[in-house]
């Protein structure tokens, strides 16, 4: 037996759920239009400053150490020191900028106690957009390089134009 509940002329489940959520919000005194306590720099104000500081500091340290290890492994190890892995180093460098500059700026803003800093926000968004573009373009270049390596004749892909042995 299929029963459809109609409320104010609406028969979709979304409207019914939306009405129940609105009624629940009013009962719990939750103001859904107040976004003033959420900042992309400092996280939610419901978190304690120490918890936000520890979370961001551990992300910065872990990400930076991991990226430095990855870059140094490609540079030092002969088996990893190949032409295609230079693209992976490029992605790791972009990620290192995020973990080495963007996240520490957020930690500084949290320690200083600023609710929002326009200069820090602009710096972070600019650097994040730049690193995102570098990563996306590098991944597209990796795809093109893999296509060339797999689909083109071996003599066109090799460094000196000779057939590999």
TrEMBL record:
Asked if tRNA-binding is a keyword of the record, the answer is no
Q: Which GO terms describe its cellular component?
A: plasma membrane
Which one Pfam family would you cite for this protein? 7tm_1
Q: Can you give the residue ranges of the G-protein coupled receptors family 1 profile domain? A: 66-165
Write down the superkingdom of origin: Eukaryota
UniProt xrefs under PROSITE patterns: G_PROTEIN_RECEP_F1_2 (PS50262)
Q: What keywords sit in the KW lines? A: Cell membrane, G-protein coupled receptor, Membrane, Receptor, Transducer, Transmembrane, Transmembrane helix
Localization? Cell membrane
Presence of keyword Methyltransferase: no
Which GO-annotated molecular functions does the record name? G protein-coupled receptor activity
Q: How does it sit in the membrane?
A: Multi-pass membrane protein
Major place of localization? membrane
Q: Which residues cross the membrane?
A: 53-75, 87-115, 127-148
Q: Which family does it belong to?
A: Belongs to the G-protein coupled receptor 1 family.
Q: Which PANTHER family match?
A: ADRENERGIC RECEPTOR-RELATED G-PROTEIN COUPLED RECEPTOR
Q: What name does UniProt use for this protein?
A: 5-hydroxytryptamine receptor 2A
